[in-house]
Specification:
- InterPro entries: DUF5406 (IPR035387).
- This protein has 100 residues and is mainly beta.
- It has one domain.
- Helices cover 0% and strands 40% of the residues.
- It contains no helices and 7 strands.
- Strand 4 (49-51) and strand 5 form a beta hairpin.
- The two termini are 22 Å apart.
Length: 100
């Protein structure tokens, strides 16, 4: 299970998803924002999701980040800027594939 953390100023949030295959160690660092595009999120407290394309064909995303005071920041931005919000990737659980 991979945890992706986002931050803008003092507003933070995260999503988690499972990734199959060889994803230990440095392999997880090869993840980028495109890995979130078609993922089924296992935990999504920030309401991360895709929005419709605009008239220029740009894809958009949305999420709601929160600061320590409980204030919310609603974010809507183009997919090309998603990486600017990502502050960490973390392996939070490893489950070995069952051998058949």
């Amino acid at each position: 299970t991979i945890k992706v953390s986002f931050q803008r100023w003092d507003y933070k949030g995260f999503v988690t998803f499972r990734r199959g295959g060889n994803c230990k160690g440095l392999d997880v660092l090869a993840l980028d924002e495109d890995d979130l595009y078609d993922q089924t999120l296992t935990d999504n407290p920030i309401g991360f999701g895709l929005l419709p394309e605009d008239d220029e064909g740009n894809e958009w995303f949305k999420m709601t980040l929160m600061n320590d005071n409980g204030d919310e920041l609603s974010v809507e931005d183009t997919w090309s800027y998603l990486s600017d919000y990502i502050v960490s990737f973390e392996i939070i659980e490893f489950v070995a594939d069952k051998e058949e």
